[in-house]
């Protein structure tokens, strides 16, 4: 698990560093409030403290003992730049608050199978659930920091977020109870996460978005067992309308 977490951290740093390099490599932005901001989409969002909204699609994979889990999510995001620019050297930027709703939430796990367990020195086979899981998710809390940049096109950011998942069957799969359904986990799970990304502005008020998040999935022991998904890497691509 330690090696997997290091790979996730390195991926975050790569995305954030690449976005920062691209942002700093372009021509300086016009001063805040100038007429030239109409030709500078990044500065326009910064000075107007704009709203952002748009669709996204998300693909992910578990790591460590969940490396055979895959995820596909899709939905809509909404956010609002809240503060003026806060100057803190390389960390200068603005705070944004947002949320996401995901009517598409799917997890793909190994098919139901027998698994070897050990209890008091004895080894035995027990049936485990598995297969595809479907649900919906709500992310009501996204705290995002948009870095101050001299770019007219690139806006790098990092964020921390948290949300709630509901699945039509208990997730993740666990030992089967006699009726043949996953036992003791929960249809409700939480997904705290953190990540980094970049907006690429195509023109004023329009951007393509790329983000990478590390997501933890846990029921917070709402069921008798809480095997969870300790870590997964999620890559998100979206299209944003700024107002």
Written account of the structure:
By secondary structure, this protein is mainly β. The chain has two helices and eleven strands, in the order H-H-E-E-E-E-E-E-E-E-E-E-E. The protein has helices at 2-25, 41-48, and strands at residues 51-62, 70-81, 93-108, 113-119, 122-128, 132-147, 154-171, 186-190, 193-203, 206-217, 229-242. The strands form two sheets. An eight-stranded antiparallel barrel has the order 1-2-3-6-7-9-10-11. A two-stranded antiparallel ribbon has the order 4-5. It is elongated. The two termini are 42 Å apart. Mean pLDDT is 87; it is low at 23-35.
Short description:
The chain is mainly β. It has a single domain, classed as Beta Barrel (Porin), CATH 2.40.160.
Topology of helices and strands:
Elements: H1 2-25, H2 41-48, E1 51-62, E2 70-81, E3 93-108, E4 113-119, E5 122-128, E6 132-147, E7 154-171, E8 186-190, E9 193-203, E10 206-217, E11 229-242
Antiparallel strand pairs: 1-2, 1-11, 2-3, 3-6, 4-5, 6-7, 7-8, 7-9, 9-10, 10-11
Do you know the CATH topology?
A: Porin
Largest sheet: 8 strands, antiparallel, barrel
**Backbone structural class:** mainly beta
Strand content: over 45%
Give the oligomer, counting copies of the same chain as homo and different chains as hetero.
Answer: single chain
Count the helices. How many? Answer: 2
Reading side by side through the largest sheet, how are the strands ordered? Answer: 1-2-3-6-7-9-10-11
Along the chain, the helix and strand elements come as HHEEEEEEEEEEE
Count of spatially separate domains: 1
Helix residue percentage: 10-25%
Q: What shape does the CA trace take?
A: elongated
CATH class placement:
Mainly Beta
Mean pLDDT over all positions? 87
Radius of gyration, in Å, reads 21 Å
The tally of beta strands, per DSSP, is: 11
Write the CATH architecture name: Beta Barrel
Distance between the termini: 42 Å
Outline the low-pLDDT stretches: 23-35
